[in-house]
Amino acid sequence: MIIIRFNKIDFKGLRNTRDLGQVSTIDGLKVKKGLLFRSGRIDKLSNKRIKEFLQTYNIKTIIDLRTQTEVRESKNFTYPEIVEYYHIPVLNKQFFGITHENNSMAKVVLSQKHKITECGSGEEYMISMYESIVFDKTSQSHFKTIFDILCKDTDGALLFHCNGGKDRTGITTLFFYTLLGVSEEDILDEYAMSDVFNHKHNRSRELLMKIFMPTSKRTKALLVSMLYAKRVYLEKTIAKIKEKHGSVLNFLYEEIKITKEMQEKLKEKYLES
Questions:
Q1: CATH number of 7-272
Q2: SS3 letters for 34-99?
Q3: Alpha-carbon span 177 to 44, nearest angstrom
Q4: What's the predicted TM-score (pTM) here?
Q5: Cβ(135)–Cβ(143) below 8 Å
Q6: Residue 10 burial (CB count, 10 A)
Q7: For residue 186, what are the CA distances in angstroms to 4, 14, 195?
Q8: SS (H, E, C) the chain
Q9: Are 270 and 151 in contact (CB under 8 A)?
Q10: Which of 72, 80, 130, 217 has the fewest Cβ atoms within 10 angstroms?
């Protein structure tokens, strides 16, 4: 049973938004509250509301992990001048089930059906997508850029987000917590909170998908599993990283090119006793 001890941000119009602070590390330190936030997309708020949100939580830096197309389709939205905005697309192309371009879902499903069904199940498909993100060289260079920004001496808090705040954002959180020394069990628990916080949204989407999606029951079942942040997605991804590199930390050193100095900087900035 998961104990809900993670800091959900209740701000009307935002989904899957939380403070990454107050989680303990293996060596007894704690992640500082109010310095780093994760979220789904925030550009559905009005300009007035988004400014209110940023000021309420003292957010001065935003890292947008979405694709170029996802950002372009955000209806000419621009962030207020009070924040420094970085667009770092962890993925440069559409990954069905992870990115959310404004394609007709039915059209995308039919065009990519073979990719989805050849994996055997929605779970297998999502795990393969996570592994594609983690081991892609371009994605790795973008993760390095993200951590360069996280290491900067900046005023205020930082928020990183993708669309739903579960997949790209979840993997970024895995890397961040690993560098700080948070246990794998707590990382997995925090990741699974996306399903707790997105429960109503996911259930409504699941119902609409089952009623209106013009495809077979089997394919619908595969698609439904993509709505969720199932613990097994991250567990299997971590296992694959360990198989190749021995540990997630080694992977971050060897592939993302995180230095020991960067890790110490992150600990100094984001941890407290």
A1: 3.90.190.10
A2: CCEEEECCCCCCCHHHHHHHHHHCCEEEEEECCCHHHHHCCCCCCCCCCCEEEECCCCCCCCECCE
A3: 28
A4: 0.89
A5: no
A6: 8
A7: 11, 24, 15
A8: CCCCCCEECCCCCCCCCEECCCCECCCCCEECCCCEEEECCCCCCCHHHHHHHHHHCCEEEEEECCCHHHHHCCCCCCCCCCCEEEECCCCCCCCECCECCCCCHHHHHHHHHHHHHCCCCHHHHHHHHHHHHHHCHHHHHHHHHHHHHHCCCCCCEEEEECCCCCCHHHHHHHHHHHHHCCCHHHHHHHHHHHHHHCHHHHHHHHHHHHHHCCCCHHHHHHHHHCCCCCHHHHHHHHHHHHHHHCCHHHHHHHCCCCCHHHHHHHHHHHEEC
A9: no
A10: 217
Confidence check: pLDDT of 220 > 90? no
CA distances, 114 to each of 108, 123, 167 (Å):
11, 15, 22
Q: How many CA atoms lie within 13 A of 104 on its CB side?
A: 7
| Tokens at 207, concatenated | 């119902």
| Dihedral (CA of 198, 162, 191, 265) sign | negative
Q: In this predicted model, what pLDDT tens digit does every residue of 164-199 receive, in sequence order? A: 899 999 999 999 999 999 999 999 999 999 887 765
Question: Is it the case that residue 119 has pLDDT exceeding 60?
Answer: yes
| Token representation of residue 242 | 């360990």
d(CA 237, CA 191): 13
**Calpha distance 192→186 (Å, rounded):** 10
pLDDT digits (tens, 9 = 90+) for 147-168: 999 999 999 999 999 988 999 9
Cross-strand partners of 59 = 157
**What's the average model confidence in pLDDT over 252-258?**
98
